[in-house]
């Protein structure tokens, strides 16, 4: 990527636009624009406010079309999940 200016990106699992952001420097310093995808309503509102020139989508992404039951997320960092078995194993692992 280097210092290419005015590029495009897709960020699946976008979190807070400032804290732990993987794209903040690209947006602010190099004027990158793109698509931010998050199933979390609070993060979606933050992205809408902080990144109005981007396309912000409040949806989940998966391998099959349809609806998914969202089980929760961790508020520290950008850790999100919608798969209960995976999230429980992960949560047990980091809290062991």
Notable characteristics:
single chain, 96 residues, alpha/beta, three-stranded parallel sheet, two-stranded antiparallel sheet, 5 strands, globular
Polypeptide structure, described:
The chain is α/β, with parallel strands linked by helices. It contains three helices and five strands; from the N terminus they run E-H-E-H-E-E-E-H. The protein has helices spanning 24-30, 41-50, 84-94, and strands spanning 8-12, 33-37, 55-57, 72-73, 80-81. The strands form two sheets. A three-stranded parallel sheet has the order 1-2-3, covered by helices on one side. The radius of gyration is 15 Å and the shape is globular.
- Indicate the low-confidence ranges by residue numbers: none
Tally of separate domains:
1
Number of helices: 3
Order of helices and strands: EHEHEEEH
Q: Multimeric state of these chains?
A: single chain
Helix amount: 25-40%
């Amino acid at each position: 990527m280097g210092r290419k200016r005015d590029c495009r990106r897709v960020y699946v699992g976008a979190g807070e636009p400032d804290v732990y952001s993987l794209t903040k420097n690209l947006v602010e310093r190099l004027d990158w624009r793109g698509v931010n995808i998050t199933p979390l309503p609070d993060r979606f509102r933050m992205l809408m406010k902080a990144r109005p020139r981007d396309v912000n989508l409040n949806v989940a992404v998966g391998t099959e079309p349809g609806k998914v039951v969202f089980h929760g997320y961790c508020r520290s960092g950008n850790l999100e999940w919608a798969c209960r078995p995976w999230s429980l194993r992960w949560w047990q692992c980091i809290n062991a």
